[in-house]
């Protein structure tokens, strides 16, 4: 297998980015499917109802925002863009539920989508600052 111009490190970085994009795509599809599929009386539906429908939004959109961070980057602006994008996706799905016969629009879902994405972004920013503290102001950036 021929090496890429950047050598093994560049190849490893490209593989990580490809894996991040695949994971993000799978996350988008999984959340979209769970949000828009018809609700019935399956085992999955009973588990979701027992856990409280809205509370599953928190971890789902936290994971989605974290996947966006992996793809877009960890600068504060990109973390903010990741949170906004994950939240917008959740809100679009919530609006799309208006057309689904067994689903309904829910303001609590909107709030939990934003809270989950916001929590993940806050954790990323805190960890970023903790793992990579700023250099002193006299050091070159």
Describe the structure.
This protein is mainly alpha-helical. It has one domain (8-131). 71% of the residues lie in helices and 0% in strands. The protein contains five helices and no strands. Helix 1 runs parallel beside helix 4. Mean pLDDT is 86; it is low at 136-141.
Short note summarizing the structure:
The protein has 141 residues and is mostly helical.
The H-and-E topology, N to C, reads as: HHHHH
What is the CA-atom radius of gyration, in angstroms?
19 Å
Largest sheet: none
How much β-strand is present in the residues? under 5%
| Structural class estimated from helices and strands | mainly alpha
Secondary structure: helix percent: over 70%
Distance between the amino and carboxyl termini: 37 Å
Which descriptor suits the 3D outline? Answer: globular
How large is the count of helical segments? 5
Number of strands: 0
Number of domains: 1
- Mean pLDDT comes to 86
Uncertain regions spanning at least 5 consecutive residues: 136-141
List its traits.
141 residues, mainly alpha, 5 helices, 71% helix, 0% strand, disordered C terminus
Topology:
Elements: H1 8-36, H2 43-51, H3 57-72, H4 76-96, H5 107-131
Helix pairs in contact: 1-3, 1-4, 3-4, 3-5, 4-5
């Amino acid at each position: 297998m021929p090496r890429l111009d950047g050598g093994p490190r560049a190849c490893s970085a490209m593989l990580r980015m490809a894996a991040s994009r695949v994971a993000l795509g799978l996350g988008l599809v999984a959340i979209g499917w769970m949000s828009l599929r018809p609700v019935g009386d399956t085992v999955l539906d009973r588990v979701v109802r027992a856990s409280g429908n809205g509370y599953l939004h928190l971890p789902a959109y936290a994971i989605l925002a974290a996947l966006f961070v992996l793809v877009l980057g960890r600068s504060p602006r990109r973390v903010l863009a990741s949170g906004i994008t994950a939240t917008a996706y959740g809100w679009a799905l919530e609006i799309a539920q208006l057309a689904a016969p067994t689903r309904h629009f829910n303001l609590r879902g909107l709030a939990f989508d934003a809270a989950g994405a916001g929590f993940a972004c806050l954790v990323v920013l805190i960890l970023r600052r903790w793992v990579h503290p700023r250099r002193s102001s006299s050091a070159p950036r």
